[in-house]
């Protein structure tokens, strides 16, 4: 998913697009429609299950959602229905399932999960028996979500087995809406721009048009990129013409050339990449200190805060074999209300595994060597610590850190450690109050922070929820919410997610099924976030 670069804009007329994305009669009436053509679409694994998008197995289009690693029959694929589906109202639901991981037929359920104010409930919406290797249809045209239901989620499970399975074309709409049968699967072949199964003169015509106007459809771009270098350009037109004329019988594969300092991924591509990488539960071995792996060193230091007019503490995690002759990118990790600089690195609800998660990711080549800073974010010239949630002076003490990180902490880190500077090399994320602050920092100082995360963020963040220019827009915005969060709920982080969505800002919406306002949501979020930071440029 490297950045699609081209000095020549490209596009295809609507006629060329309909071969890939046929218009469904009731599409505009759908409240939920997951096709998985652009990734997991906020679906995640339930229980021990993990999910990912795959091509080559689909009920429609090119891709489907593959669910595996199921230890129990209730482990499966799940998605939050958010606030679009209302308690007490009637809906139509439809989903397609298939497994090739069983010797006999398998019973699948489409199930609702919700909370009635006392306990979690799991009514079945639809049931179907599927034969091995054949798509089966789960459907119910009239299902009422119970009155008073909250935290409403939809998931796919099996009756008894733990087989792996595929899910595709999940739809939900007001009862009475006709959910049409989806079109047949399609297969992408390089050069076959109109997806008609043949590479011919029509594809040459469309490629020529693509050098005049911008191609925005990712699937069309993928087919038009004949040499697989992730750039649609004149050479692709030449290759398609040579293929049609018989001068070549296959397309070459050309490695993209990345110039140091050049962006590899657009914000859209980073979002898609990280949304697909997001996990519900990080692997257990990510918490372990493994033989042969070196882990970073934690040091406690202080810096002078101009806002507070005094020294404030922070912890710093230096990478293994920290070398002052090298320079490292920096990730700032912020704690929550009533917490301190130890919370996100050494003292959580239980044992914090941040050091191990970061060290293992670096050792596995999945994250870059980095310095991680854990500051005390409460910043006040008159108070030593917060005294209450409703106390204006306490809230101000936290909000002061939005400027303090830029005015005092970052200059201190840059002066005392060997760091890479600039937004390409600077990231911030935080938990609870720290998550709210990280969003505020990212919106105010988008020119300084290229990666912004928020884990179960508290309410109170105000701003435009967009940026004025590409130079101020982060490469990655990553928001995590837990379905079992009893402090800010799922609704608060979901509200931030909705604000970015309304403004057309690509971002990861990471829902941790069963995630609390604590270590489980933090670990899950950090596990993925550190794999994305500092990856958008070379």
Structure, explained:
The chain is α+β, with helices and mostly antiparallel strands. The protein has three domains: 14-19 and 186-245, Type 1 dockerin domain (Orthogonal Bundle), CATH 1.10.1330; 27-174, Galactose-binding domain-like (Jelly Rolls); 267-394 and 423-532, Rossmann fold (3-Layer(aba) Sandwich). 22% of the residues lie in helices and 24% in strands. It contains eleven helices and 20 strands. It has helices at 14-17, 201-210, 218-224, 234-245, 267-277, 354-363, 392-399, 401-416, 433-444, 491-502, 519-532, and strands at 30-34, 44-46, 50-55, 63-68, 76-80, 90-98, 106-115, 120-121, 124-130, 136-144, 150-158, 165-174, 297-305, 310-318, 330-334, 371-375, 426-430, 451-455, 476-482, 508-512. Strands 13-14-16-15-17-18-19-20 form an eight-stranded mixed sheet, sandwiched between helices. Strand 19, helix 10 and strand 20 (508-512) form a beta-alpha-beta unit.
């Amino acid at each position: 998913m490297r950045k699609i670069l081209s000095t020549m804009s490209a596009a295809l007329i609507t006629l060329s697009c309909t071969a890939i994305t046929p218009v469904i009669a009731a599409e505009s009436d759908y409240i939920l429609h997951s096709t998985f053509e652009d990734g997991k679409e906020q679906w995640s694994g339930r229980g021990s299950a993990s999910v990912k998008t795959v091509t080559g197995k689909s009920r429609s289009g090119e891709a489907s959602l593959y669910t595996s690693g199921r230890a129990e029959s209730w482990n499966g694929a799940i998605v939050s229905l958010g606030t679009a589906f209302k308690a007490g109202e009637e809906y139509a639901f439809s989903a397609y399932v298939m497994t090739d991981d069983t010797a006999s037929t398998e019973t699948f359920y489409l199930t609702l999960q919700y909370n009635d104010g006392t306990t979690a409930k799991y009514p079945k919406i639809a049931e179907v028996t599927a034969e091995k290797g054949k798509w089966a249809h789960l459907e119910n045209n009239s299902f009422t979500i119970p009155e008073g239901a909250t935290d409403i989620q939809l998931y796919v499970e099996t009756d008894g087995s733990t087989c792996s399975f595929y899910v595709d074309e999940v739809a939900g709409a007001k009862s009475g809406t006709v959910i049409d049968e989806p079109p047949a699967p399609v297969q992408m072949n390089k050069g076959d721009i109109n997806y008609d199964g043949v590479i011919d003169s029509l594809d040459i015509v469309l490629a020529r048009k693509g050098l005049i106007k911008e191609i925005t459809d990712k699937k069309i771009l993928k087919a038009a990129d004949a040499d697989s270098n992730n750039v649609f350009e004149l050479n692709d037109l030449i290759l398609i013409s040579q293929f049609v004329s018989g001068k070549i019988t296959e397309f070459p594969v050309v490695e993209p050339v990345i110039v140091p300092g050049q962006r590899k991924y657009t914000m859209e591509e980073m979002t898609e990449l990280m949304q697909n990488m997001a996990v519900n539960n990080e692997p257990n071995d990510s918490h372990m200190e493994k033989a042969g792996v070196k882990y970073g060193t934690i040091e406690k230091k202080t810096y002078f805060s101009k806002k507070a007019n005094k020294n404030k503490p922070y912890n710093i995690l230096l990478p293994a074999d920290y070398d002052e002759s090298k320079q490292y990118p920096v990730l700032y990790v912020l704690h929550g209300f009533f917490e301190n600089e130890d919370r996100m690195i050494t003292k959580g609800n239980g044992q914090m595994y941040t050091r191990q998660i970061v060290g293992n990711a670096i050792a596995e080549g999945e994250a870059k060597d980095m310095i991680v800073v854990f500051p005390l974010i409460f910043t006040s010239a008159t108070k030593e610590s917060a005294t209450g949630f409703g106390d204006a002076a306490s809230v101000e003490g936290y909000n002061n850190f939005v400027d303090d990180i830029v005015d005092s902490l970052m200059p201190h880190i840059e002066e005392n450690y060997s760091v890479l500077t600039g937004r390409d090399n600077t990231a911030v994320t935080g938990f609870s109050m720290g998550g709210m602050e990280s969003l505020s920092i990212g919106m105010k100082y988008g020119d300084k922070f290229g990666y912004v995360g928020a884990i179960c963020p508290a309410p109170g963040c105000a701003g435009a929820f967009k940026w004025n220019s590409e130079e101020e827009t982060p490469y990655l915005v990553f928001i995590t919410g837990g379905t079992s969060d009893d402090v800010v709920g799922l609704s608060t982080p979901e509200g931030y997610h909705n604000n970015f969505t309304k403004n057309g800002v690509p971002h990861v919406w990471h829902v941790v099924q069963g995630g609390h306002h604590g270590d489980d949501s933090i670990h899950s979020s950090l596990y993925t976030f550190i794999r994305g930071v500092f990856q958008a440029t070379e």
